[in-house]
């Protein structure tokens, strides 16, 4: 097997999943902890069936990773707040109808109850620097980081 793009450093953990059938198929992991059926959303010409889609999985993974990064910042700085929420919203977009390629549209909505908006925005920016998903996407995807108020409910 040829591995391309290997990075330096020590790998702490690896996860693996295999796709079968693309957006109309399913994915599975070798340990059988995850087995998910896919279906194509109606907006992309599919039947909108009972399966999930790659964007939902990415939204979930990105939200969980970012929330963990916020927790790291909070522990490091001794900051406490209520029960936080991070909602990942991931979509597909096209630049124009003539362009057949898709681009990700990503937003993370962050609720940090008990913090002022300024404190929450500072924590979000510091978490962005720690989150591996944020670093992987870099500036190639314009991720919107939105601090939401408790009244908005995340």
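^ structure tokens above, recovered residues below v
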């Amino acid at each position: 097997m040829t591995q391309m793009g290997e990075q330096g450093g020590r790998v702490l953990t690896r996860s693996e999943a295999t796709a079968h059938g693309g957006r109309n198929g399913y994915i599975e992991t070798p340990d059988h902890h995850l087995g998910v059926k896919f279906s194509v959303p109606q907006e992309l010409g599919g039947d909108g069936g009972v399966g999930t889609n790659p964007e939902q999985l990415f939204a979930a993974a990105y939200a969980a990773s970012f929330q963990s990064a916020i927790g790291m910042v909070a522990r490091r700085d001794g900051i406490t707040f209520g029960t936080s929420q991070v909602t990942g919203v991931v979509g597909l977009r096209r630049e124009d109808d003539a362009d057949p390629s898709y681009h990700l549209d990503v937003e993370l909505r962050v609720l940090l109850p008990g913090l002022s908006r300024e404190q929450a925005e500072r924590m979000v920016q510091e978490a962005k620097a720690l989150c591996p998903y944020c670093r992987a996407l870099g500036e190639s995807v314009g991720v919107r980081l939105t601090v939401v108020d408790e009244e908005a409910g995340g």
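Strands lie at 18-20, 26-28, 35-37, 85-93, 103-111, 144-147.
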